[in-house]
Amino acid sequence: MPTNKRSKYRGTRTCGGGTHKNRRGAGNRGGRGRAGINAHHFVKWYMEMGGPVFGKNGFFHNPAVTVSSMDIGIIDQIVPSLLAQGIAKQEGDAIVLNAADIGIEKVLGSGRVTKKLNISAAAFSEQAKAKIEKTGGKTQVV
Known about the structure:
Elements (H helix, E strand, L loop, with lengths): L4 H5 L32 H8 L19 E3 H14 L3 E3 L2 E5 L7 E3 L8 E5 L1 E2 L1 H9 L3 E4 L1
């Protein structure tokens, strides 16, 4: 007389799964997801995907480019030490400075400018240009 599986295993501890330690965790099925793709799950990937599939796909994230920058107010404050080190030069009443010599690519506009500065840099913000030219200085994009 045929019986259904539910009735057959009713009252048993493991329902035909061997010892109670079996059917426990991902180790029983050989890992989760694509684990073992190069070893014991190799055939499965050939059959399903038509060949091994490695790597990622989709969009490429371009990391942000960091630009070294400094505020014009800080440059104005460190001018005496730059003159003492020989990085900046005094030409008449103006102080000439190449921002690349102190490792700066862009000059930003925060702070006060009290000296006449002739600065050459790769880039200037609009506010920095306005403050430098207001005191009689010059900006030069290199």
